Amino acid sequence: MALDTSWSDYKKISDIRLNKITARRTLANTIERASTIVYSISVANTNAGNHHLGVAAYDMELVKAYVNIRGDEGTNGTVAIEKWDDIAETADDLMTDAGAVDGGAAELFTLTPVTDGGQYIGAGEILNMLTTNLSGSVEGIVTLVFKLVDNVNNS
Predict the structure, then answer these.
(1) Predicted confidence (pLDDT) per residue in 131-145, tens digit
(2) Closest CA to 109 of 69, 73, 74
(3) Torsion-angle region of residue 7: left (phi > 0), alpha (psi -120 to 50) or beta?
(4) What's the DSSP call for residue 10?
(5) Digit-coded pLDDT (tens) for 72-90
(6) Among 12, 105, 127, 155, which is most exposed with the fewest C-beta within 10 angstroms?
(7) Which of 91, 149, 87, 96 is nearest to 124 (CA)?
(8) Which of 103, 111, 129 is nearest to 43 (CA)?
(9) List of the chain residues with pLDDT < 70
(10) Which domains does the chain have, with CATH numbers?
(11) CA distances from residue 34 to 13, 23, 30, 105 in whole angstroms, order as listed
């Protein structure tokens, strides 16, 4: 969004008349855009292991994932985002592909969400960053972009 964008360029949901199919589509698209949640957290030490990122507040779909490792990772390894059903990790599932970390320098990863159903997370499930082989003890910043998921019967 440009800083000089006028607020009059934005439509309020209450201003949309629903007597036309295009108006209903506009309303649906507006609601869909508004359902985006961006979650960002700093992980103090990205050494190999599990790094808890928090708990999902809603049923959501992961649509984008980024990990910024802020320095020398020490050794080559991988980084991925996964979900757990509980803190004891009795069941886990990858939410993204695993990014290859080239030890020795800071890196920014764009991780691709999986398409096998693992990209969906239920309210109360745990978000986790899994790193392997890294030993540089550097900070990582994780940014996850979610869309809320509704079970809506469109018939």
Answers:
(1) 999 998 899 999 999
(2) 69
(3) alpha
(4) S
(5) 888 899 999 999 988 777 7
(6) 155
(7) 87
(8) 129
(9) 1-19, 149-155
(10) 36-148 (2.60.120.260)
(11) 11, 17, 6, 37
